[in-house]
Amino acid sequence: ACSAFSQKSCEECLKNVSCLWCYTNNTCIDYPVRSILPSSSLCSLSNARWGVCWINFEALIIALAVVAGLILVSITVCCCYCCYCRKRSRSRLDEEEEQLARKREERRLESLQRKHERKLKHDEIRKKYGLLQDSDNPYSRFENE
């Protein structure tokens, strides 16, 4: 079916997506689907057109390879960046948790120290006024005078 468009124009040939236009002899041939690229005996890549007439097959392959390479590189960079950020954020969270735990422990120790100081101060006041109970017999009777 593609050979019917030979000696006409590239645009008419490429309306059918299964056709390949060769500029060396202005022929429209069936695209060789068994091989990915058309062989040079059929038509050289610089003179072959497929899909559009304004770009040759060689440039089309190079452009597609560059675009695919850029996409792969960008995906790789994004994955590496995300993994690095995730690792960094985890370590940052761990550091924050450790810091909060240290502060919590410091506050607890300070609170216990203040509690102990208050107890000593209260015991001194009780001792001064004779309200401190005997440590040997804590259940002694309170005597009214």
Main sheet makeup:
3 strands, antiparallel
Domain unit count: 2
- What is the helix/strand order? HEEEH
Total number of β-strand segments?
3
* Overall helicity: 40-55%
The parts where pLDDT drops under 50 for at least 5 residues are: none
Shape estimate:
rod-shaped
Lateral arrangement of strands in the main beta sheet: 2-1-3
Average residue-wise pLDDT = 84
Protein name: PTTG protein
GO cellular component, one term: nucleus
Keywords: Coiled coil, Membrane, Transmembrane, Transmembrane helix
InterPro entries: PTTG1IP
Description:
The protein folds into 2 domains: 2-55; 57-130. The chain is mainly α and 145 residues long. A 3-stranded antiparallel beta sheet has the order 2-1-3, with no helix packed on it. The chain contains 2 helices and 3 strands. The N and C termini lie far apart (128 Å). 52% of the residues lie in helices and 7% in strands. A hairpin with a 4-residue loop joins β1 (19-22) and β2.
Topology:
Blueprint: H1 10-13, E1 19-22, E2 27-30, E3 48-49, H2 57-128
Organism: Myiagra hebetior
Transmembrane segments: 59-84
Protein name: PTTG protein
